Amino acid sequence: MTVTAEILAVGDELVHGALLDTNSKWIAGELEAIGLVVRRFTVAGDDPEQLRIVFAEACARADVVVATGGLGPTLDDRTRDVVAGLLGGPLWFDEPSWDHLCGWLRQRGRPVPDSNRRQAMLPPGAVPLANPVGTAPGFRVQAGLAQLFVLPGVPREMQVMLQGHVLPFVAAMPGLTPTAQLCLRVLGPSEALLGERIEPFMAPGRNPAVGITASGGLLTVRIVATAATRADAHSACAATAGELRPLLGDWLFAEGTAELPEIVVQRLARAGATLAVAESCTGGTIAARLVDIAGVSSVFRGGVVAYSNDSKRELLGVPAALLDTHGAVSEPVAAAMAQGARERFGADVAIATTGIAGPDGGSAQKPVGTVCFALARAAGVRAWTVRIPDLGRSFVRDRAVFEIWRALLREPLDA
User: Fold this and answer.
1) Which of 145, 171, 197 is the last residue of a domain?
2) Helix axes 48-61, 79-87, angle to 10 degrees
3) In terms of C-beta density within 10 A (0-12 exposed, 13-18 middle, 19 or more buried), how is residue 1 classed?
4) Mind listing the pLDDT tens digit for each residue in 350-372?
5) Residues 134 and 199 in one domain
6) I need a surface site. Which of 120, 139, 180, 249 has the fewest CB within 10 A?
7) Do 185 and 137 fall within a single domain?
């Protein structure tokens, strides 16, 4: 027996592309961590008839359905009305939810429009779920075969309420399937070549299941195991990873479920090393992704986006002779950029990128996708060039960022 789940994201802004549904990904990870098997994501607009179909079908298939969005105070927030219609009864007014909503607004010096009363209306049989960080309460109700949880679409509110209300309830359900996963990060081969190398591990029905995900040139081999206990599932993942590592060889450069910038920051912290960056073609992307990580200030000194030749000279001290002789996209210039960043920020380690992301600017000698990198530390500077496939400007820049993560995870960080 397995406990299955589906996740619904509601809102016209999602189906029209104005906003990206990031809630479903986060919810799925949390549900699978406690032993549910997530079968499907569905994104639906605010049309009442379409919403009714989506809710009815999900609640007829899954044991647990988690929906986000459509709980605001305006007429286009229709989730509660649709669920009430599905359950065959009118909405009812929950006085405690209204009192909480009024208090929340007044504590912040905000008026309480009468339209906010809609947020305290709940479908028949629903149990209100308090929202400690916003106005809209959620609710839980039995709908069809499913325990249906409806939460606000605002990510911060949704996350607090999922952890406070949904996960404790679901964790007590019988039949949970402990699940674990392990990710192996690969850079270098094509997806097809990697697939051929590990094909026997990707057979349907295998436990642990093994699959490949591609993103901007980075390949992730994801190992997912289920077992009687979480510890057994982790052991099964580890065993499969042990079989895969020799097949991956030098392509493998990182492991774990954390995002690569987080793994980089952790490695720098363990080494007691500080970092500076000098970016040209990557345009500040490396620095931006680093500062998304909490605690990065202990290792990250700063960065420079030196896009023009003048900025390379003035901000990083790249000699004009190097630029004139070798051009901005060259290993000597990358090395000078890295060394300049290291000196100016007083960092232990510095990295640099300079390249041709396209679609223009390439030549026979330096085609689009040519990117030069450098890593500087007390022991010296290493520079290298990668010819990234010209699969579009974003692909080249993303692939260049992954190359930097690989360098920072594999290069020595000490003197």
Assistant:
1) 171
2) 60
3) exposed
4) 999 999 999 999 999 999 999 99
5) no
6) 249
7) no
**Which of 222, 255, 288 is the last residue before a domain boundary?**
255
Q: Could you say which DSSP state residue 78 is in?
A: -
What three-state secondary structure class fits 400? helix
* One domain for residues 292 and 368: yes
Residue 242 and residue 300 in one domain: no
161 and 290: one domain?
no
State which residues form the domain around 135. 4-171
Tens of pLDDT, residues 123-140: 999 999 999 999 899 999
Q: What is the pTM of this model?
A: 0.81
Label residues 391-401 b or e (16+ Cβ within 10 Å = b): eebebbbbbbb
Annotate 84-112 with three-state secondary structure.
HHHHCCCCEECHHHHHHHHHHHHHCCCCC
